[in-house]
Specification:
Helices cover 51% and strands 12% of the residues. The chain folds into 3 domains: 3-145, no CATH class; 150-255, Rossmann fold, CATH 3.40.50; 263-456, no CATH class. It starts with a helix and ends in a 5-residue tail after the last helix. A 6-stranded mixed β-sheet has the order 2-1-3-4-6-5, sandwiched between helices. The protein contains 16 helices and 10 strands. A hairpin with a 2-residue loop joins strand 7 and strand 8.
């Protein structure tokens, strides 16, 4: 998914808040205007002055926004404006019904039925207008500046493929920028094009290509975080988690590699920011105390920065130093003592590089708590696959690289299911399961289990 699509979806929330606020203010001033007050005198000024009314509106609007979200008004793949208009009518009417019930139970708040009806009318009008204008802005930016347009590779030479390519090129407002069109399904050539041309989306219009080659291409796109869409006919092998849209009457199916997309990404990042900030504040005194002990125990810095990889990007993982200085350079001399024979990872329980205080902070996982800073800065997430070294990733088989699809985490499915005692293949399976079945509830469950593991797990070394 392009970040621009998510941006225009996220911006709907403050836009709707502003439109609902404007609707409430418009309704109040219309009711208290000379024209309306002459027809029906205003009797609620004492019970509901404008200042009190505004405070009530500010409290109620978030409830409306929450209800709109439940009813699907903030989905990333939005409907056309007409369908959205009827959806707004239904959502606003339901939200107003809840307000009416509240007013009935708290009748002393105010007694103007006119304002209630006016707010409903203005809400529908302003919400629709705001979204219409936003669509126009998005369309203008896409057509004129290519903002958010997906760099697209079209694969196929039949009538459907040609039609899709022609329509995408002639109508840039739909957000597809067809960089290349290839006729022959040469997997190696297509993979090279995706990497060299920085392709965002691959669209396969021809449906008679070999299914095994299509599966290989879909997996390659997944590993490289490229959208994969196809005209469905013979492609059920990966159709367990799909999104279906029509493009000029032609159905296009998009493989959804993880539910962690759209609003899921926003929610997860929001939880990461709040959770990591909380962790930094809580554990800062512990960092100070351990820093003094580490400096007294052995030579070297308090914190170490270790080069790690997440989503094919390198970053520096921050940890409390638990080893002697220059421990990374000593690793090559200890490879023969590696106790893990099932994968590319290195483990040695009696590692001579670990300091005295290092053994303690490793057992208690305190050495990993500075990663709250990595999470806050966006390098990592609170929950996700473990980050690995680039030299380890070079030894990964193709299916191992699926764990690079999302940000690595301080803790994860594998860490709470056996930690470093877990066979490498089982660890990969658990991380892939997490990626394909992500939910906020699953993250919370893993975080709670992590707290228990801190006290019970003995596998750390």
């Amino acid at each position: 998914m392009k970040k621009s699509s998510l941006f225009f979806t996220v911006i709907l929330v403050p836009l709707d808040f502003a439109m609902l606020f404007l609707a409430a203010v418009s309704a109040y001033f219309l009711r208290t205007s000379d024209f309306v007050s002459q027809l029906r005198p205003v009797l609620f000024f004492e019970n509901l002055p404008f200042e009190k009314y505004i405070m009530l509106v500010i409290v109620v609007i978030p409830f409306w926004i929450f209800l709109f979200a439940l009813l699907g008004l903030y989905k990333v793949n939005r409907k056309n404006i007409l369908e959205e208009f009827f959806q707004i009518i239904a959502a606003a009417s339901l939200a107003m019904m809840a307000v009416i019930i509240y007013i009935f139970l708290q009748s002393e708040q105010f007694d103007s039925r006119f304002i209630i009806l006016a707010i409903l009318f203005f809400s529908i009008f302003y919400l629709t207008l705001g979204r219409f204008i936003l669509r126009k802005i998005e369309k203008h930016l896409t057509e004129k500046y290519g903002f958010g347009a997906q760099r697209t590779l079209m694969v196929g030479s039949d009538k459907i493929s040609n039609l899709l390519a022609d329509e995408m090129k002639s109508k840039p407002k739909f957000g597809y920028n067809v960089i290349l069109k290839v006729s022959n399904f040469d997997l190696n050539y297509i993979q090279k094009l995706i990497e060299d041309k920085n392709i965002d989306t691959v669209v396969v219009g021809q449906s008679d290509y070999p299914s095994n080659a299509m599966v290989d291409l879909a997996e390659f796109c997944q590993l490289n975080r490229v959208n994969f869409k196809f005209a469905p006919t013979v492609f059920q092998a990966l159709a367990t988690n799909i999104n279906i849209n029509t493009f000029f009457g032609i159905p296009l199916m998009e493989i959804k590699y993880t539910p962690l997309d759209g609003w899921g990404r926003v929610i997860k990042r929001s939880v990461d920011i709040v959770g990591s900030l909380f962790g930094i504040i809580i554990f800062s005194p512990i960092f100070l105390i351990l820093g003094i002990i580490i400096k007294l125990d052995s030579k070297g810095p308090v914190f170490v920065k270790l080069k790690r990889v997440t989503q094919d990007k390198e970053f520096y993982l921050l940890k409390l130093r638990s080893m002697v200085q220059d421990a990374e350079f000593m690793k090559k001399d200890l490879l023969g003592a590696n106790e893990r024979k099932d994968g590319p990872l290195f483990k040695m329980k009696e590692d001579p590089r670990i300091t005295k205080i290092g053994r303690f902070i490793r057992k208690t996982r305190l050495d990993e708590f500075p990663q709250f800073f990595n999470v806050f800065l966006g390098d990592m997430s609170l929950v996700g696959p473990r980050p690995h070294q680039s030299d380890e990733i070079e030894k990964y088989e193709k299916h191992h690289k699926k764990v690079l699809a999302i940000k690595s985490g301080m803790t994860g499915m594998a860490q709470v299911s056996g930690s470093s005692d877990l066979p490498f293949e089982e660890e990969i399976k658990l991380d892939v399961y997490y990626i394909e079945n992500w939910s906020l509830f699953l993250d919370i469950k893993i975080l709670l289990r992590t707290i228990l593991v801190l006290f019970k797990d003995k596998s750390a070394c």
